[in-house]
Amino acid sequence: MDLHFTSAEPTPQERAAIDGFLSRLPAGGPRRQYLLPALHVVQTSAGWISEGALNHLCRGLGVPPAEAFGVADFYALLSTREQPRAIAHVCDDIGCMPKGAESLCNAMEATLGPAGSTGGGPSAWQRSPCLGMCERAPAALVVVAGENPSEQAIGPATAAVVLGALAGDAPPEPGVAASLPQAGAAGLRLLARAGSIDPTSIGAYESAGGFTALRRALEMGAEAIFSEVTSARLVGRGGAAFPTGVKWAAVRREPAPRYLICNADESEPGTFKDRVLMEGDPFALVESMVIAGFATGCERGYVYIRGEYPLAATRLENAMARCRERGLLGDDIAGSGFSFDVELRRGAGAYICGEETALMNSIEGFRGEPRNKPPFPTQVGLFGRPTVINNVETLVNVPLVLTMGAEAFASIGTERSTGPKLFCVSGQVARPGVYEADFGITLREMIELAGGLAGSGKLQAVLLGGAAGAFVGPDDLDVPLTFEGTRAIGATLGSAVIMPFDDGAYLPAVLRRIAEFFRDESCGQCVPCRVGTVRQEELLQRLASNDVHGSREDEVALLAEIGRVMRDASICGLGHTASSAIESALARLPLPEEPK
Amino acid sequence: MGGGTSSYREMEEADTVVLWGSNARETHPIYFHHVLKAVNRGAKLFVVDPRRTTSADWADTWLGLDVGTDIVLANAVAREILAAGLEDREFIENATSGFEEFHAHVEPYTLEHAAEVCRVAPESIRRLAHEFATARNAQLCWTLGITEHHNSVDNVLSLINLGLLTGHVGRYGSGLNPLRGQNNVQGGGDMGALPDRLVGFQHLENDELRRPFDEAWGITMPARRGWHLSGMFDAMERGELTSLYVIGENPANSESDQHRTRRLLEGLETLVVQDMILTQTAELADVVFPAAAGWVESEGTVTNSERRVQRVRRAVAPPDGVRDDLVILSDLAKRMGCDIGEPVAEAIWNEVRALSPMHRGMSYARLETGQGLQWPCYDEEHPGEQYLHGRLWMRPVLGPLAPFSVCTNRMPVDKLTEEFPIRLTTGRRLDSYNTGVQSGVYPSPLRRGETLDISPDDARAYGLVEGEPVRVTSRRGSVVAPVRIDDGLRAGLVFMTMHFPDDVAVNELTIDAVDPMSGTSEFKATAVRIEKIAVAAEALSPV
Amino acid sequence: MSDNLKAPDPLVPVPQGPVPVLPTGSRKSVEITIDGATVAVPEGATLLEAGRMQGIDTPTLCFLENLTPVNVCRICVVELEGSRTLVPACSRKVEAGMVIHTDSERVRHSRRLVLELLASSVDVSTAPQFQDYMSRYEAEPSRFGPPGPPAAAGERDSARPGHHHAPDGSTASRVAQPVKIDNELYVRDYSKCILCYKCVEACGVDAQNTFAIAVAGRGFGARIATEYDVTLPDSACVYCGNCIGVCPTGALMFKSEHDMRAAGTWDESAQSQTDTICPYCGVGCTLTVHAQHDLIVKVTSPLDQDVANGHLCIKGRFGWEWVNQDKDRD
Ligand SMILES: Cc1cc2nc3c(=O)[nH]c(=O)nc-3n(C[C@H](O)[C@H](O)[C@H](O)COP(=O)(O)O)c2cc1C
Ligand code: SF4
Ligand code: SF4
Ligand code: SF4
Ligand code: FES
Ligand code: FES
To answer: C28-146 has which fold?
Structure first.
């Protein structure tokens, strides 16, 4: 290509970081897919992506700088403007709101100035959407760039700990078990190991039953695994509740090369189960991917993990390295002749990259904009090839299906929601965390399992399924937590978020925060969602301040129209669901009309 | 018939594309869009050019040969194709002639030999040969880089050999295509604006072809070809040519060796210039006819590089006192005693159709709607031909066989010596055109004036920095231009345009050696020397 | 000239060969039902094409015949029975048995809302087609409140992805901002940008492959930008103007037009459009010359042409000023 560059040059440090990265890339082949990793390298070494650094990495990768800029400027964790090297991302999302997020923000502001200000000091802070640590609310992520870069997830966060981390102190590490109130309990299947064994030790994993399924899988052969998964009626846990067997079948029909992606982008507010699994039982995911890759005839796997999950990423990298050493990942796995390797790709702060086609664009080095479907990823996916994409939890169910047998697996739960399930319980409960339960447990039982309501003890509403889910009221507590059960009451299980609010919570503010979230996270591609999420937020502001255009009824009707066009005409699930929680709240909950 | 054998659209479906001596990215930008469609589809692109141009930046392989060694490279490609057994035997046996002689001739052109003469990696030559020969569809295109040489016809023939050797001609998707540098160069030739041609590219010296013209016009035409442009200047030198009528050309700027050109123009008894702009040639003229801008103030047709005859139309009125070419010519005819009335463009065109079989089917009505028609188009039912020479794939072949040509390289006339050690080549930039009379007016943000583009190595060797004025001297003249360092140039090669003749008269440097067949000047190969101008330090510092 | 004795005698005309037969893809057809009528349409056609064959005029904003469909504006959505959501006609391919409604209440609602959402945030005053659609779908953009204040120069260019200032809802946020004028050939008024991606496609793989502009930012902050918002002269822009050619709203505009509009002298009713051929290189692109009072005011290129597919280079697009030179009458 005849690329054109401005005269800006990188600093020596930037140049060294980029050249080091480029020298580690495989020779030949298209290089665009390394754009996001390269941007991470620059961000981590310099704390921002300067024009000179961008020029230099674009020369190395053969990417037009305007396009690379468009990619860099898509992600919240990358900065295209100079900023301090140490940044605290402080969650002010709905899960942290009732747990003191606002006072944490106030304290940050008092010390470092307004959010986002780059007042010249060595550190700054930003507000952040849900960091996927709601069970340890309020949460913060501290990222320090430079020669000794670090990333620290902090929860529960206090201003003192966050400021200390910005200055380089290591925050206390609560350990995975803190997120797993059931840790060590008998009868757990998905969580049998997490929180109980050393997640960095392949030996510990193996002694706890690890790799049994893989060995069995290699003996059974691809066809048999596939039919087990199909007869187990395993349904995807990523939110869209799609039958895994059907998806696999579609890819198996297509010609090679095929790819497998594990969707570990988990950014739905209130969701943290995948993180806890990856932190607590990373080998299980690697094993699951090898089995899934084998069953679907994929030649290569990718884990796309959200950028805010440094610990999970480290644990996975370690697990993959140990597996490679043991011949359980890479060429000729366990002497079976089957070769399969997995690459870890990190997101950089974009909820939309959890949408499967946006995720593929992100890996390929493009903006994380969803693609129109059809064609579906099973036919035209990553790099234009047939691709299986599954959620972390979905994949981790696969070894379980093989060890238990399809029949036993399918006998758990209900006819249409089979197997064990992880739930992300946060908000006003006594013991927030990830819980494993059989499908069919009721909402009431689930809240009880988490120690019952906290706060005032009086329930106002429960958000089910995440920001893209729906609010239910105190009357709905007997809903069985299954895909079909939640659907029957007009809600959704989504990513299994259970977030109760007590009567002290001011729901209009929660709704506004949800609207804000969708506005911020919309990729901006399609009109209904790009502008609709803005109009929705504005309208909620007017409702909250009671400064309405026309009557309240007019406004509510207009809100419904906005919701309708987003649902009907948006490209992807983000737009389709951007109004659902809000509309469900307006429809079923008595909301205060007076501003608070 | 002289024209590109393929249509632009076919380019998009090629598997291998060779741009030989063409920087289409800048000189034929929209043609390059078609190339890019192929490249983005996965086609292999080879660019043969002494400079690593913006076109070469898109190539899988750039072959940066030394100026004037094209025939050696082409012969080596042919030899490699033959050595690897990749030639199309069936096509060669049935559709061509002269193969054995050609085969024997190219035998000594080994990869190693060509690599040494052309200074191109043998592997690159090999790759080109193999990808070209094995492609399902291959397109070979060239521009001025091939034709602006003293041996331009041989250059072209050596490329045609490659098409014949591989059967990449006469089929949908494969072809040999000269890209015309200027609007309607194709049309001008087709209309007989060549010393040996009549309308329809019909040969003047063929009695049978000439007869219809004599009959139609009631005259007897001299059966002898005229002079090429450069032949005309030689004739002026000899005193045989004393009057000149120039229509829409600016030889005072555009011809090579300008000192000589101007001297000869000034020495004419009568110089008449008809042009839309008061060019430097017009300034020398005894009579100037201000003419309307053909493309936008007048009606007519032009023909593009894919042989497509297209309508040009009057969109605006010419300025006061400016007349249509047709009106000027018919007026002049009348004064000279030949009243052809006041013909309109369509009537003239119908006369063309009457006399040129290949244009016969192109009525104005057909040209008016749609996108024009490609010749040949023999009658009004004929759709026009998307590609030429399909006859070579008929068995037996219809008409004469296509001959291989035995071509031998001759190095540029302007020899590199110790005194003139640097090769100057010329070309165009994206936003400019020829001598800039039209393109120099609009406020192009890309325009940066004339520069001497030089390799980083030479800049270092001469101690030159970007922007510094430098003297460039050839055996014929000397100019001063600012330096621009271009890492697409190799040491020993410099580049200039001729877009800014008022500022830097590059054609004062170029040589007037011409190809005896086509009359094209060797703009692409001048021997020069470069001298740093000793400037006082304060003169360089900003005021 | 070297030994070339066997060259065909130029005096002998080459005989007329057969008319070459061109490869034509014969397409099967599939049956679908559009607005109650069952029709056969070629396999691989889009719903938009299928509709057009039935004389159905489907509105489009981000679609153009010479660009790859990006299906982002969503104005063209139609109802496909069995589909949970509406589908974009411009990119959805026909499948046998599809039942389509192109003018149902649901379709009209989405189209109306799309128009309202756009018109409440973007200046569509120089987009005549858009105005037509607005009246066709009875769009009332004012439903979202009075227009919000414009952004200062550079403000939208420096927005952080994923962050925005919380609105109070009293006005409707807009993309309004000052016009970017950084060269003499064309201006960029992103107050008028509906983010249809067409300019990016024309500058990118669909035509020019120069990639001077791309979409940056995200959500409502998404915008067309050069890297770091550098000026066009600092960017990779080669001024082919193909972005102007495809821009549906006048956000990208010839400076000549922009200046005349500012001076109040732009008068489309007094303009002619004439197709002719570019006077520069031998490619032979068709230019549609727009002239007002015998002065060229801008140049466009028709879409349905095999030579240029609606695109031009800098010379064809802008190299006409010399024709006006001696004619400046007013
Ligand atoms: C806006 C949006 C965000 C999403 N985020 C995630 C996510 O973070 N993790 C996930 O597994 N699926 C996510 N999904 C769902 C994926 O698109 C996809 O359905 C899922 O990865 C399929 O895996 P499964 O079949 O195993 O559930 C998201 C979907 C949308 C529309
Ligand atoms: S619905 Fe929203 S997030 Fe999805 S493609 Fe459209 S703009 Fe992007
Ligand atoms: S500038 Fe024009 S063409 Fe480009 S995205 Fe905006 S409206 Fe579309
Ligand atoms: S627009 Fe450009 S490419 Fe097309 S004919 Fe004119 S100069 Fe040639
Ligand atoms: S981490 Fe704060 S809401 Fe999830
Ligand atoms: S025209 Fe179909 S989505 Fe824009």
So the answer is: Ubiquitin-like (UB roll) (3.10.20)
